[in-house]
């Protein structure tokens, strides 16, 4: 922290212009030497009056250190409130020593007990991930010592250990939530390093698809819990529809005679038809009579569904489809399964559509056919299934070879 006029550099060089931000009393100036993300680094400065009424101009820090205009604004408000408290003869909630000696372990305990527990939030999985990955590295770090460099090294080490991008984002996100809550509670007043790091990019393409026995078990469990979500899952699994497309189906869109399902509202904005399986035709015959323009799967209020029913996730949990095989013990000694965190491997409702496409590829359907049935706007979107097609092509060539060799043997 520097309580001097920053427009004058130490060696007397040209005064640097500050410009206002959208926050009152917060200015920013560019550095002529420092660089951050390919641009001049930015220093944030605040103006305020101390307990004696003296005007103070203070550097809060640089963008490369994780400082933002919003953070500088919060720091200015804190200093103003502190000055007012001193003028009223009140003490600050924390001494300077307490504010600068907060470790991440202590911050996590405070966040867990006074935020998550107090609000009835589940924290067991966060506790396990904190203990397994964050505590060994950052547990004894003071919050102000968690720098962008330290976080980048942390993420690199997690990547080297084989953790997915989603898991790494979750871990860094937990650290970020802890530190931001400490700032919000005025328990920490140092820099936040998160704006200066680049989080690993997610590959959202689903890799895992259900095996037939898994699909049958899931449908059986869903039917036991909810006929509606069972039928929606069956449509997705056997027609490849997205949840949003299923939620928009109206009775007039179903043509049982021709075995067609009209999708009027697709993701790419183009309508298409899906082909019904005999099992789906039988299931849809049992739908109660409704007006032609009525939704097939409305909410209890008769409106269009926007979220997948919790019955689906409960069924998946009951079958253990997202369990890693490991367990952890909570504070009461109760064992819980460790869940898969890589979104590419987790089973969610969209996995049913991915399973449909994967089964098509395994059965020998070409890329163009898969793109048409899924309603993809380009063949590129169906390219992810080509490795499954190649397996089928290889199997076909092996069958051709056997036929050829058998015919050759018969001639002999």
Give a brief outline of the structure:
This protein is of the alpha+beta class and about 400 residues long. The chain contains 14 helices and nine strands.
Characteristics:
four-stranded antiparallel beta sheet, 412 residues, disordered N terminus, three-stranded antiparallel beta sheet, alpha+beta, 14 helices, single chain, elongated
Broad shape: elongated
The fraction of residues in strands falls at 5-15%
Q: What ranges have pLDDT less than 50 throughout 5 or more consecutive residues? A: 1-15, 91-98
Number of distinct beta strands: 9
Number of helices: 14
CA-CA gap between termini = 93 Å
What radius of gyration results from the CA coordinates? 30 Å
- Find the structural class using helix and strand composition: alpha+beta
Provide the residue-averaged pLDDT.
83
Tell me about the largest β-sheet. 4 strands, antiparallel
Looking across the biggest beta sheet, what order are the strands in?
1-2-3-4
The helix fraction, in percent, is 40-55%
N-to-C SSE series? EEEEHHHHHHHHHEEEHHEEHHH
């Amino acid at each position: 922290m520097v309580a001097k006029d920053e427009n004058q550099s130490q060696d007397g060089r040209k005064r640097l212009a500050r410009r206002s931000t959208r926050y009152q009393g917060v200015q920013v100036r560019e550095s002529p030497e420092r660089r951050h993300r390919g641009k001049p680094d930015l220093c944030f400065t605040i103006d305020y009056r101390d307990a004696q009424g003296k005007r103070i101009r203070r550097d809060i820090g640089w963008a490369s250190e994780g400082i933002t205009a919003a953070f500088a604004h919060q720091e200015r408000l804190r200093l103003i409130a502190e000055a007012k408290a001193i003028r009223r003869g009140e003490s600050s909630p924390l001494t300077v020593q307490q504010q600068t000696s907060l470790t991440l372990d202590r911050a996590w305990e405070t966040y867990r007990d006074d935020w998550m527990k107090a609000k009835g939030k589940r924290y067991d999985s966060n506790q396990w991930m904190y203990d397994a990955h964050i505590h060994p590295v950052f547990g004894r770090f003071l919050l102000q010592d968690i720098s962008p460099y330290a976080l980048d090294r942390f993420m690199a080490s997690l990547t080297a250990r084989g953790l997915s991008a989603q898991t790494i984002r979750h871990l860094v996100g937990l650290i970020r939530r802890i530190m931001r809550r400490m700032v919000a509670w005025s328990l920490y007043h140092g820099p936040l390093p998160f704006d200066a790091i680049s989080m690993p990019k997610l590959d959202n393409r689903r890799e895992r698809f259900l095996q037939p026995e898994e699909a049958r078990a899931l449908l059986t469990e869903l039917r036991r819990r909810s006929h509606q979500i069972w039928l929606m899952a069956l449509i997705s699994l056997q027609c490849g529809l997205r949840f949003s497309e299923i939620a928009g189906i109206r009775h007039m869109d179903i043509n049982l005679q021709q075995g067609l399902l009209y999708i009027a509202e697709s993701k790419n904005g183009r309508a298409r038809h899906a082909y019904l399986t005999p099992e789906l035709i039988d299931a849809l015959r049992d739908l109660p009579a409704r007006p032609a323009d009525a939704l097939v799967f409305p909410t209890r209020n008769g409106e269009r569904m926007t979220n997948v029913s919790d019955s689906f996730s409960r069924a998946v949990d009951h079958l253990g489809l997202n369990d890693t095989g490991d367990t952890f013990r909570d504070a009461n000694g109760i064992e819980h399964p460790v869940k898969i965190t890589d979104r590419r491997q987790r089973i969610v409702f969209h996995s049913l559509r991915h399973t449909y496409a994967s089964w098509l590829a395994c059965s020998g359907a070409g890329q163009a056919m898969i793109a048409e049935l899924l309603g993809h706007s380009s063949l590129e979107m169906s390219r992810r299934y080509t490795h499954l097609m190649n397996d089928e092509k290889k199997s076909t060539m092996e069958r051709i070879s056997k036929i050829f060799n058998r015919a050759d043997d018969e001639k002999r």
